[in-house]
Specification:
disordered N terminus, Rossmann fold, 17 helices, five-stranded parallel beta sheet, elongated, 35% helix, alpha/beta
């Protein structure tokens, strides 16, 4: 058996390391001599040559093969019918924008969802909508992540890695897109199933005659100016379907409204939504990558309408089934403003087959944010104090957040617990380290008959008086920090590997110097108020005032390494806490 040797780049410490890899010929998948889960190229270009009628059922094995090789960005170029054999060098040609292409692109993004590491981008440069005069294809398009490898589903008769075919593939890729120097080419030979259980595939992998006749291939209506809106938080495959369809419909200009400020208030886990500028940057990069010929106008959306009800040049608005009412409201406003109604193009929601019980069924940004819970959001800090072999987690959260339940579960998992709130209560006792200072600063009228400090009376003096509160904190916090150090040293002496420093004012008090990571527990304000009222027997207004006197969740999250939420059933809280603990253990082993 003759083997080709391909030099594949691996990346380690920003350095390219050559690896000799053997390719097994025949209709078998590419054998890399590496674990199947290992990807070796940061970016790749996948050229799909199968006929559209066959491609839909081939996407899953094709994407699976490509995902073994590419670890970050995978560009996809549709060129059905492209031949890489023969004497002439193939060139890119236009593919008409039809309902079949539209459905294929939607399915492609949906199928790519199982490959979480891949940022898939279907390129639309050669997808021609019916209202556009086709310019001559030939100029090289710049891509934000130039491909290091070009892949294809094209197959040779002998099932091998033919050098002439690969050379044509490389020349084809570099004639269309900016690629990295020393571009590598690979013929994938995915493992197609010969026949599905319901007979959709014939023995050679084709669609059955019944299914072929059911595929409608109608031209996709296009419009000069199109508008679409959304939060666009962390561009996911659902967004990509929406944006790709919008780009296919638009001939000249695409307006994009990006929700901000008040429109974010009711979003799930709003504290984890990326800043507006960052969302716009990601959105713009994706759009310019997939279709650079369009004019893009991106604007902040502070209400549900934006310029969609005032721009006279707009012709079409793209909505989903759940935002269709919003599209109808836009048209009502346009009529009131003396403008023509927009064509409503409604897309189907993409279902997320891997959604958890507490996540949305559709692919959504809310679900993406849920999956961030318990994960490391930024690199750990090097604690200035923690002893060697002890890792300190600073656990914090507002009143009613459920921080205590998280702390209790972490203790059950093996952590040493330092309850800073309890320490704060103890130091008020007569003979305690701050007793005399507090009485001297705030007067004897804060004492009970037995000489102990009346915490309610003290609280009444400092509540609403920032200067008095600052004075009390300056007395309390340094002493509590010293007591925390002693407790941390006690944990180290007991041989513990993880210590939880549990404090509601961890961030305000500046105790972050004592910890390696900050973990914050958040909860929507309305839910926190309900919990406080039920727990403490106070009014809703009093509970709201208490929360408003504390650091807001958004500010806590900005300083946090890990975020958790307790708004679901206790079982979900335990599940998220165990997820965070398991990921922490991996980090500790990797140290």
């Amino acid at each position: 058996m003759e083997l080709d040797i391909i030099r594949l780049p691996l990346f380690k410490s920003e350095e390219m390391l050559p690896v000799l890899t053997k390719v097994l010929p025949g209709r078998a998948r590419l054998q890399l001599g590496l674990p199947s889960s290992m990807s070796v190229f940061r970016s790749g270009l996948l050229v799909l040559t199968s006929p559209l009628s066959k491609l839909s059922l081939r996407l899953v094995p094709i994407l699976t093969s490509a995902a073994r090789l590419v670890q970050d960005t995978l560009y996809i170029h549709l060129q059905p019918g492209l031949s890489l054999t023969g004497s002439t060098q193939p060139r890119s040609t236009y593919v008409p924008a039809t309902s079949e292409v539209y459905s294929l692109i939607s399915k492609l993004y949906a199928d790519a969802g199982v490959h979480h590491h891949l940022d898939v981008r279907v390129l639309l440069t050669n997808i021609l909508n019916q209202g556009t005069s086709p310019p001559v294809l030939g100029s090289v398009q710049n891509l934000s992540q130039p491909p290091e490898v070009v892949l294809t589903d094209f197959e040779t008769g002998d099932g091998g890695q033919s050098n002439p075919v690969k050379q044509r593939l490389e020349r084809y890729a570099t004639s269309c897109y900016s690629c990295r120097p020393n571009l590598i080419s690979v013929l994938l030979y995915p493992e197609y199933e010969l026949e599905s259980s319901d007979g959709d595939l014939s023995p050679d992998g084709d669609l059955s005659p019944q299914q072929e006749t059911s595929v409608k291939d109608e031209p996709l209506q296009s419009y000069s100016d199109v508008v679409v809106g959304g939060t666009f938080d962390r561009i996911h495959n659902g967004h990509k379907i929406l944006l790709s369809v919008s780009c296919m419909l638009a001939e000249n200009r695409l307006l994009l409204g990006v929700s901000d400020k008040d429109l974010l208030e009711n979003k799930l886990l709003k504290e984890l939504i990326l800043p507006f500028e960052q969302r716009v940057t990601q959105l713009n990069e994706f759009l310019v990558d997939i279709k650079p010929s369009l004019l893009y106008e991106i604007f902040p959306l502070f209400d549900y309408f934006g310029p969609s009800i005032t721009d006279p040049d707009l012709k079409c608005i793209v909505v989903s089934k759940e935002t269709l009412k919003g599209g109808l409201a836009v048209n009502k406003k346009r009529v009131e403003n003396g403008l023509s109604e927009l064509a409503l193009h409604t897309i189907k929601l993409a279902i997320d087959p891997q959604h958890a019980s507490y996540e949305e069924e559709k692919i959504s940004s809310s679900s993406m944010r849920c999956r961030l819970l318990g994960t490391l959001l930024r690199p750990p800090r090097k604690g200035l104090f923690p002893p060697p072999h002890l890792y300190v987690i600073g656990l914090t959260g507002g009143s009613g957040s459920g921080k205590s339940s998280i702390a209790q579960h972490l203790v059950r998992l093996g952590a040493f617990h330092v309850d800073m709130d309890h320490l704060g209560h103890d130091i008020y006792m007569p003979g305690g380290p701050v007793y005399e200072q507090v009485v001297e600063a705030f007067g004897t009228d804060i004492l009970k008959e037995d000489g102990t400090i009346n915490r309610q009376a003290l609280g009444a003096k400092v509540f609403g008086d920032k200067e008095q509160l600052r004075m009390l904190n300056n007395i309390m916090w340094p002493v509590m920090a010293q007591m925390a150090k002693e407790k941390i040293e006690e944990a180290a002496a007991q041989g513990k590997s993880v210590c939880i420093l549990d404090g509601a004012v961890l961030l305000e008090a500046g105790w972050t110097d004592l910890v390696n990571e900050v973990w914050t527990v958040i909860i929507p304000e309305d839910e926190a108020i309900k919990r406080i009222v039920a727990r403490d027997g106070i009014s809703e207004e009093a509970a709201r005032l208490r929360l408003q006197s504390q650091m807001p969740n958004s500010q806590r999250v900005k300083q946090s390494h890990v975020v958790l939420c307790t708004m679901w059933e206790p079982e979900v809280t335990c599940e998220l806490t165990e997820k965070a603990w398991a990921l922490l253990q991996k980090r500790l082993k990797a140290k």
